[in-house]
Design brief:
Layout lengths: L9 E6 L3 H12 L5 E7 L3 E3 L4 H6 L8 E3 H8 L2 E4 L2 E5 L4 E4 L4 E3 L2 E4 L4 E2 L4 H5 L3 E2 L3 H20 L8 E6 L3 H20 L7 E7 L10 H13 L2 E5 L2 E6 L2 E6 L2 E6 L2 E4 L3 E2 L2 H5 L10 E3 L11 E3 L4 E3 L8 H20 L14 E4 L5 E5 L2 E5 H19 L7
Parallel strand pairs: 1-2, 1-9, 2-5, 9-21, 11-18, 12-13, 12-18, 13-14, 20-22
Antiparallel strand pairs: 3-4, 6-7, 7-8, 10-19, 15-16, 16-17, 23-24, 24-25
Helix pairs in contact: 1-3, 1-9
Bound molecules: flavin-adenine dinucleotide.
């Protein structure tokens, strides 16, 4: 399919080291691709595995356990690794234009850059909230929050002071992250002999309920749990302004406002603007429109997978499980494209199992009408997640 001078290998450029590309790289390491030179460009050398992020925040895993070492994985795949941020694509010249000024050539391009936060608060408001996306940037903000909580717990006049944390977004990620942060900070307060009651928690969502894509039973379970853990729930609250130490929202009962020392933003995301600005086909949320072969609509040489891609015929929720599942068909199609063979179609599953942890080494399993909760669910999730990460830590001998 690509059009290099004969004899020259094709340049495959993988943009972003997300959940799909790590699978592609592993596949290429296990079964090297002849006739192609592969480059991975990522703005971070460590790729976070989202399934274990709440467990990292809760203190169950350390940083290395929840991150994939991209340069090492690229070496295993025989790929070149470049640390840079792609800011645009020149489709005519077949170049990826990087923030640093670097220009990376490609014959086949694959994009797996995740999603960017949608913070509709204006520039001044947005500066006062902490977006969880990109998750590669969240760690720094989380460590800063942890430090702030520790300082407060040990300050001289501490007994009189509270720390109020608001999470904006009532989907699985928002609920899971709040419960993880709460467990961790309570432990820190207990360790420092400070009263955990001085930590105040709010969860705000514009929807009429939390976890809108889950069953009534799962929603009830989490509403009860949040109430037990002293989290104030604000349903139907569309946050529309923020400043230093406050958030404001519009809701069915009119406008509301609360004082919040920290506001974590975990709402629906959108596609990076450079995708649209590069002239690629995007949907209303700025995500790349892809067909069943994972090629971007109208582009024979450009593929996309993960959160940044929106499947035209099979729209699905944004979730890491889909990004992971796209990895193998994507690797296969890159292989077929190099060989000039017909591409294969991919159809994502309609229902998927969500394992939502509750911060205390318990979790809830949710799939359609089925749900189950308990310590064993967390152990099951932990086993699945660790097994996934082992695939990148214990890399087999590379085949020539
Ligand atoms: C707290 C939390 C918990 C979650 N838990 C789960 C869960 O349990 N199960 C589940 O299925 N989903 C979960 N999700 C959703 C999940 O995070 C996403 O669906 C998943 O990360 C999407 O994977 P991706 O590969 O598309 O993108 P990402 O994981 O975001 O990876 C994109 C990569 O590309 C890199 N990148 C971005 N832009 C550029 C650029 N311009 N140039 C170069 N590199 C770039 C980034 O550094 C990043 O490493 C959770 C999300 C959150 C926030």
């Amino acid at each position: 399919m690509p059009s290099r001078e004969s004899g020259e290998p094709d340049e495959i450029l993988l943009v972003g080291g997300g959940h799909s590309h790590v699978i592609v790289l592993r596949e290429l390491g296990l079964r090297p691709l002849a006739g192609a030179r592969v480059t991975l460009v990522s703005n971070a050398a460590r790729s976070p595995y989202s399934g274990m992020l709440p467990g990292y925040v809760a203190g169950h895993y350390d940083f290395a356990q929840v991150h994939i070492d991209l340069p090492r994985l690229a070496a295993f795949a025989g790929a070149h690794f470049v640390t840079d941020e792609v800011a645009g694509i020149d489709r005519a010249a077949r170049l990826a234009l990087c923030r640093s000024g670097r220009r990376l050539p490609w014959d086949l391009l694959s994009i797996n850059v995740g999603a960017t936060p949608r913070i509709e608060l204006g520039a001044t408001g947005a500066a006062h909230v902490v977006p969880v996306k990109p998750i590669s940037g969240f760690n720094e903000r989380w460590l800063a929050l942890l430090q702030r909580a520790r300082r407060l717990a040990t300050a001289g006049d501490a007994a009189a002071r509270t720390l109020t944390i608001a999470v904006v977004g009532g989907g699985a990620a928002g609920v899971e992250l709040l419960l993880a942060m709460q467990c961790r900070l309570r432990q820190e307060f207990a360790r420092l002999r400070a009263d955990p009651q001085r930590l105040r928690w709010h969860l705000l969502t514009r929807d009429p309920d939390i976890l809108p894509t889950h069953s009534r039973r799962v929603r009830q379970h989490f509403r009860r749990l949040l109430a037990e853990r002293g989290v104030r729930l604000h349903l139907g609250a569309a946050v529309d302004a923020a400043g230093a130490g406050w958030l404001q929202w519009q809701g069915p009962g009119g406008a509301g406002r609360l004082a919040a020392d920290e506001a974590i933003w975990v709402t629906r995301a959108r596609g990076a603007t450079w995708l649209r600005d590069s002239g690629l086909a995007v949907d209303g949320d700025g995500f790349l429109r892809v067909g069943d072969t994972l090629q971007v609509a109208g582009e024979a040489h450009i593929f996309a997978a993960g959160d940044c891609a929106s499947m035209i015929h099979h729209p699905r929720e944004k979730a890491g499980v889909f990004a992971v599942r796209m990895g193998r068909p994507l690797a296969e199609n890159l292989r077929r494209a190099v060989a000039g063979r017909a591409l294969v179609g991919y159809r994502p599953q309609r229902r998927w199992l969500a394992l939502i942890s509750t911060g205390d080494r318990r979790a809830v399993a949710s799939r359609g009408a089925f749900s189950a909760a308990g310590r064993w669910v967390w152990h099951w999730k932990d086993w699945i997640d660790r097994r996934f990460m082992r695939r990148f830590a214990d890399l087999p001998e590379r085949r020539k």
